[in-house]
Amino acid sequence: MKNLYIRKWVVITVFLLSANFHGFAQTAKKAVVEERNVRAQMEFLAGDALQGRGSGTIFERIAAEYIGSQFMQFGLEPAGEKDASGRQTFVQSVEVAGRSYLQEMKVSGELANSFAMGKDFAFFSISSKEIVGELQKLKVGEKAKSGAVVFLMIDENAEFASLQESLGQFFRDGAAAVFMSENKRFTDDWKEINDRKPALGRRGSLAATTKSGTEALSKLADGTRIEMRGTFSEPQKGATWNAMGKITGTDPKLGSEVILLTSHLDHLGIRPNAPGDDKIFNGADDDASGTVAVLELARTLASGKKPKRTVYFVCFGSEEAGGHGATYFVNNLPFPKEKLIANLEFEMIGRPDAKVKAEELWLTGYERSNLGAELAKRGAKLVQDPHPEENFFQRSDNFTLARQGIIAHTVSSFGLHTDYHHASDEVKTIDFVHMTRSINSMIAPIEWLVNSDFVPVWYEGTKP
After folding, report:
1. Nearest to residue 326, comparing CAs of 412, 273, 402?
2. Which domains does the chain have, with CATH numbers?
């Protein structure tokens, strides 16, 4: 009996030790993002089969449905619209208001004989069927008069993105329109620019000019009356789609607070008039890379212990067409606005930026709030945006939320590569080691954020 008892005790002890060790191993094992999953998702989202995920196209919807199906597989709760049977889904359909597109712009007055739409100038955006005002020649940083038609004289090699802050200021000053002098980028991409049909209703009218257009405007004196009248198409309603999933927080107090992780799922689609044989703008870095980051963070957070705070994972539609998905979301939040603690947008993390260390990512608007610094304390390899002249903080869906007072920034590593908004932004250009490492580097800091009571704030005078 004694020997039997000893044998039983040994067996039981070994079993308990084994069970405890196994439990410890399971607890200690941290979920990590695997490169094969990153590659698989990128190959689908940025492959030719999705035809560039054009804003408002059926291919954008397919991308949204795919992302929603992944959210379901990871175990997220649906946060989209209800289907015909009343069941919640992972996709939200957004009706895009009918828009009238510019078909023709006629010029009157002194420019009538030398300045023609499509030949000498092309609009990026237009705010009125009629543009009437006095000409005002300005340089970057100068102030526009209310109602003026501004002729912005810029360096031939200036990048359009670097002019955004000055352009925005002109329109805030009340300028009716802004024409930009000839620029190398406009010259190189004139065919594509001219084929765009700007929609009526955007703030301020913005146009680019060719060499002849620049010369015609340069000869006119300040104060010359400029008159233009446009013909527009009949409004056509459209749609876009957001992919949405969530994990409900478990803490009685913190569970009603929301952390929002986002990207934009669309790109530029097919551009028949683009130079070269490839007409599909795949948008691998912009922004299939950010969308995969949201997917993999969803997979990781859903695989562990449920967070104290509620986490929403949303991939917005039609960012490239004016931010329609994000605008609808922020105007129809599925929770009280005051409960939205912070938003992290992920955009263009597929390649490293030579201006920062290889393992680093940067945060747009890092200097505007204390969110970036607090995440960095918890291991996030986040640094300040090394391209302040590009105004990236204002150029992604995060800004739609930031303008509502929500702490919202974009995580990126875009190094101003020349594939941006070109057909060459393909999967073959992605650095998967960098991208996988980047997503993994954000797991622990985000886990801290969704389980803490930390509430970020804007630094004084930096709130948009």
Report:
1. 402
2. 35-97+237-451 (3.40.630.10), 102-232 (3.50.30.30)
